Amino acid sequence: MDELLAQFFVEGRDLVQRATADLGLLAQTPGDGSALDSAFRAVHTLKGSVAVFGLVPAEDLLHTAEDILDRARSGQIPFDGRAIHRLQRAIDRVDAWIDNLEATTALPRDAGSVAAAHIGELRELAPQLGDATAAGEGAGSDGRSATEREAGDATWAAEWFAAESARLLEAPKTLTVFRYRPDRDCFFRGEDPLALALAVPELILLRALPSESAWPELGDFEPFQCVTRLEGASGASADAVRAAFRLAPGQVEIHRIDRDEAQAPAPGARRARETILRVEASRVDRLADGLGELIVAVNGLARLSGELAKSDPARGAELRAIHGQLEQVSNRLQRDIGAVRSVPLAHALRRLPRLVREIAETLGKTVDFRLRGESLEVDKRIADVLFEPLLHLVRNAIDHGAEQPEDRVAAGKEPACRITLQFERAGDRILVRLSDDGRGIDAAAVRDTAVKRGLIGREAAEALSEAEAVRMIFLPGFSTAGAVTSTSGRGVGMDAVQAAVEELRGTVDIASALGTGTTVELGLPVNALTTRLLVVEAGGHRYGIALDQIAETVRIDASEIALAGSGEACVLRDRTVPVVSLSALLGGDRAQGGVARLIVTEASGERVAIRVDALGERIDAVVRPATGLLGSLTAVAGSTLLGDGKILLIVDLAELLA
After folding, report:
1. Does a structural domain hold residue 138?
2. Is residue 463 located within the same domain as residue 560?
3. What is the value of pTM for the model shown?
4. What does the DSSP assignment read for 564-583?
5. Which of these, 632, 625, 595, lies nearest to 611 by C-alpha position?
6. What pLDDT, in 10s, does the model give residues 2-46?
7. pLDDT band at residue 147, thresholds of 50, 70 and 90?
8. Do residues 9 and 98 make contact, with C-beta atoms less than 8 angstroms apart?
9. Cα–Cα distance, 258 to 276 (Å, whole number)
10. Do 503 and 385 share a structural domain?
């Protein structure tokens, strides 16, 4: 793929996401001027990006959207729910075209007619809006750009004036200082940033600086991208300088400086500048693999220091000190690599609001979809896997949970079903909560459907509690839809959610009240780079078990385990808990001994105690997925290397007890 086009896909989607977020904020807080300006800037920049590749339908549509936003900023037209809805539809369409362009290298054949229909809807918002003006003229009626309209932080202007004051001794008492940041792709539109800056009237000083913190190395220069910002001072008025940059809206900041009042800001007022470095994911993955090898070596050193201490305590203590230092370094490296692999959830979820609107429109329902905490950063692997299960959950909430507007009104509810997707950090877990105020889940109907589909017997279904019955929606093949549609009825979806979440070592909980709504909560690990394991022995072999699958470990006298039907059980914290032998589950002999060592976990919402021969150390390890021969073994989640060079199989308790 062409490098410029690949960059467009990344930056274009970022701009779509920003514009969508700004419009969503405006829907909740009308009159938010900063959100309106931000949406205008995002649409304007996106328009310039699509113009580089000759995507005329997208450029025309975005230009009209830009005009609507600009007139709304100046108060020429009302900016109500209808305007926001139509602008969202336009941005959604461009977002879909970007996906189509990436998949097929071209826009759909009907792009022109579809764009014309959207443009017609937008022009109804401003009847006085004539034919689209020339691309690039996105300034408002007073010629000012969005950035210029902001009150802004003039710290940079004062800093600049202080640094250049020696060269401005002969300048007028009052100056107009400007900072011009040309768009990186401005050369493709035939723009000449230097000529534009030199055309500023009464120009006194002009300097060219790198747009980032430093100039790229000579070999890293991209001749077709602008990496320069231009800063200067003029003796002309702010309006005159503003007029000189009328063809570069949103790219220039202008401030008036009085020589007598200008002061350099305090050191703490200087704002930090961040530099973004794009790195291929495969390089970070290789770095993570190297970390895994380091962790194996550190674990091996711990074992070696313990053995040495038996014969030479002094040398053993010295080696333990070295091990402690290496462990600190590896832990710090693990945190740093984890931070590099972390990405905001917003990037992974950028398509979700658009798809929600499309699904709701297809089903003729009104949905008020809200995202909370999407700025939370998670491991890239989690972000990549999470989108599909969330889409299944949202689709299910709209199709099965949301009532038709007239039914909601009759039930005393608002016409629009509110669906909220919220993310929050809780210790070493990420909690994902999807809630709706729809019709809720009818446990009785779930029982009947499961029985009719042969997923469970009638007696077993009737014995289930309300909560257990509701959880049957996660069974493979379960569906309450009467017919197959484009959104549901095939019996896949909720079981796919559970499978995807379990792949990430996560959990799924659901709560529902008939007539009130449903809440689904996912619990996911923060760190997908390493896994905290408990090493156990069973049947003469060592196995690893992820700590997030273990509720607690218990040692009891073997006499406290009694026969219960065809199995065994014991009493833990006043609750009867079934006991199974890990060795027996894996095809070996049942665990024996006077002391029973138990690992307590959960299976199908109930606690189960797994008996092992010995409880070993707890280690951090990079777990490699089970592939090849290991992939064909039941309940093997993967493998890792121990410090002595031996392979440790990781047992998946959830699959083992299923």
Report:
1. no
2. no
3. 0.59
4. ETTEEEEEETTEEEEEEEHH
5. 595
6. 666 777 888 888 888 888 888 888 888 887 888 888 888 888 888
7. very low
8. yes
9. 35
10. yes
